[in-house]
Amino acid sequence: MRDLSLTAFTTTHSKSILVEITRAKGSTPREAGTFMLVATKAIWGTIGGGQFEYMAIDNARAMLSGGGEAVMDIPLGPEIGQCCGGHTRLAFRPLTPELAEMLERRLRDEEDDRPAVTLFGSGHVGQALARALAPLPFSVSVVETRAEALEDLPAETEKHLTAMPEAFVEKIPAGGAAIILTHDHALDFLIAQRALARADLTYVGMIGSRTKRATFANWLKREGGGDELLSRLVLPIGGTAVRDKRPNVIAALVAAELLEIYAARQAQTSKRQIPTA
């Protein structure tokens, strides 16, 4: 049942227990705020797996039978067969309609906070990247000039058919990413120029080689763009450590690159929010 939506689970299993990590100290499988739902014969979500999660499931099902504990403090050490070394506190609450709505709001807020990743082009790599990003915490859009190229994309991917993809650059939310993968180098360059002109985008990447980067640099200079713009362009995308041109491999590398970049950005934002003495 872990693949059901939260709404489907709570509708089917109204008698269930909310298990939430309320404190996470040191090395732990998941952070505070992570939750799961446990019914008699079904589970939604995960708090990290392993013996730690099995203990939580057993306690939740004991609560459904009239026993169990409302709070569990669990050290993640050898005594429970785990070696994380951290410490967690779990809270257990019977699911109510009010709690179910609160959880739905939380998930909606998380959906709204996902970085927007816009793929320009849906060829072999674009298709593979859309599939790789689908289960990750990103809001993915694909922009194409060819209707047939928008077929067979993941259901949750937003699809945009337009004769002028470069105009869509202005619609990318601030903090978003533009990844340029079209079938036309001239179009790639035009989209990249407009994306690089936006200082509020977190990531601007273009598929290609060092030769393509040099060609784009010369083109950009002729168009009045300087080195500062070029320095913000990621090309080639996915790094250079793995030299593999298969679409699925490129997609995996780019997905990892995006996760790393946005994690670093989030860490910097968190540091700025911590008051100093």
Could you name the CATH topology of the largest domain? Rossmann fold
Q: What is the architecture of the largest domain at the second tier of CATH?
A: 3-Layer(aba) Sandwich
Strand content: 15-25%
Number of separate structural domains: 2
Given as residue ranges, the uncertain stretches (5+ residues, pLDDT < 50) are 270-277
| CATH class division of the largest domain | Alpha Beta
Superfamily (CATH H level) name of the largest domain? NAD(P)-binding Rossmann-like Domain
Total number of strands: 11
Give the tags.
8 helices, five-stranded antiparallel sheet, alpha/beta, 2 domains, 277 residues, single chain, Rossmann fold
Describe this structure in words.
The chain is of the alpha/beta class and 277 residues long. It folds into two domains: 6-111, no CATH class; 114-269, NAD(P)-binding Rossmann-like Domain (Rossmann fold, 3-Layer(aba) Sandwich). 38% of the residues lie in helices and 19% in strands. It contains eight helices and eleven strands. The protein has helices at residues 6-12, 50-64, 97-112, 124-133, 185-196, 210-222, 227-231, 247-273; strands at 17-25, 35-38, 43-45, 71-75, 87-94, 116-120, 139-144, 158-161, 177-180, 203-206, 233-234. The strands form two sheets. Strands 8-7-6-9-10-11 form a six-stranded parallel beta sheet, sandwiched between helices. Strand 9, helix 5 and strand 10 form a beta-alpha-beta unit. Helix 4 packs across helix 8 (247-273). The chain is elongated, with a radius of gyration of 23 Å. It starts with 5 loop residues before the first helix and ends with a helix. Residues 270-277 have low confidence and may be disordered.
